[in-house]
Fold this protein.
Amino acid sequence: MVKYELGSSSKTASLTVLAPANMVITAISAPSQVRSGAAFLITATVQNTGGTAGWADVSITPGGIATGSAYLQPGASQGIGVSVVMPNADTTFTATCGSSSKTVFVEVIMPVATSLTLSLSPASVAPNGSVVASGALTRGDGGSTSGLTVSVDGVSGTTGSGGAYSITFTAPSTSGTKTITASFGGTTLLLPSSTQARLNVFGGIAGANWLLLAPFLLGGILLYISRR
């Protein structure tokens, strides 16, 4: 109750004093496992339990400057996501908003190195001819690599027992020595890898890269001159 006086006159009025904004973290969530070096999201749910609106500023440690914000009305609740990068070890992350905080534990996944082999059959082919690429995908810890996708010159195939693969692709339409790449894109647990092999694409009388300039009869032999 507030009393106002002016000379001999006075009046009273009711004045309600609202409690300031008060941000409380009510929940926190994150993936249970994250690959080392990968960015991921930690979400802190914040509720304004105060009497006035205000900003909820959430920071995540470790992570230094990783922060997220939301403007909350009294009684409102909102999930605030903060992006962080996974260290090279299991980590307990702490979300803080004002005097309120909660923690979440995340287990690190250390990805395994992989390697590919590649051989081409035939190693020399006419333009637009069929080539069989074969090899194997292996992993550094000796684990299974079956059922994984390998791509060769834009054509994909699936590895079988022991990580072996065989993929048929079409040779380039132009002649010359071509570099063919086999690649494995990686998974959450496995690092990507790639390897290369040389393919000799040769021209011919019927090939698109040969030009009959003039048929010179030299001792009964026709002479053809290549564009290359």
